[in-house]
Amino acid sequence: MQTEEQLKEIVRKKYSEIALQDKETNMSSCCGAGGCSTEIYNIMSDDYTELNGYNPDADLGLGCGLPTQFAKIKTGDLVVDLGSGAGNDCFIARHETGETGKVIGVDFTSAMIDKARTNAEIRGFNNVEFRQGDIEHMPITSNTADVIVSNCVLNLVPNKNAVMKDIYRVLKPGGHFSISDVVLVGALPEGLRKDAEMYAGCVAGAIQKEVYLELIQANGFSNITIQKEKPITIPDDILTNYLSANEIQQFKTGSTGIFSITVYAEKPLTENVCVPGAGCC
Fold it and tell me: Closest Cα partner for 228 from 112, 66, 80?
């Protein structure tokens, strides 16, 4: 059983490699319209190209939703993107928040930070900033963010409860988040669950949908809403690397489902709930 630090290092190494590739190279390894794949990083991605502020150079095709589309960002907002990668969601958020707002991207992979900063500098985006750090302990002052977004990142973090606590800390009272993530209904087959590559590809690190939503509620958030949900299908040529033919058949005909969900939740204006660790429960 790998430790949290070992799992994080697996993710750091894989996404450092991805950061040095272009989107075409990344996408050539996914299950697209014309063929199937030998990798797992892009099979969940949604199409960003119709969203205002989209920059192709910043899109590595690594998301599982469109959280910025649902994030209710207003002009002048301070927006934080968790796991900001090459800057894709940050630049779309910048379009929504305008010149009077600010966007901060947080990523723990130095290669991604370098790529995102280059993308911002080329475009002269002076109100977009990228900071290297763990999203369990964001390098951001408490009670400052109006909106937090994240795209297919929390499933890569072993300690998801710590991330939720830090999201609550960083959001202003009355602030909110919109997060796209991968969740499960039913248990993954052992061959998928234990594999490091599947963890880095967002699947093995996913938790039960019910547990995910309970985790949000337990950390004091209110008005929890699923804004979008879609099933994720793993192509057979990927499954054969991890499961036997019989296991694949059982997996595809069983009750297990892998889903991308985009979840919205708010930090209450007043502390009218008991947050674990606050000493009131």
Answer: 66
Q: List beta partners, residue 131.
A: 106
What's the rounded mean pLDDT across residues 181-209? 72
Count of alpha carbons within 13 Å of 153, Cβ hemisphere only?
26
Q: Cite the DSSP H helix spans in 52-170.
A: 67-70, 88-97, 110-123, 160-170
Q: What value does the mean pLDDT of the chain take?
A: 82
Full-model pTM = 0.82
The span from the CA of 267 to the CA of 269, in Å, is: 7
19 token code pair: 């950061």
Whether CATH 3.40.50.150 fits 4-266: yes
User: Helices 4-19 and 110-123: crossing angle, nearest 10°?
Assistant: 40
Q: Tens digit of pLDDT for each residue in 42-101?
A: 455 666 777 888 777 777 767 788 999 999 999 999 999 999 999 999 999 999 999 999
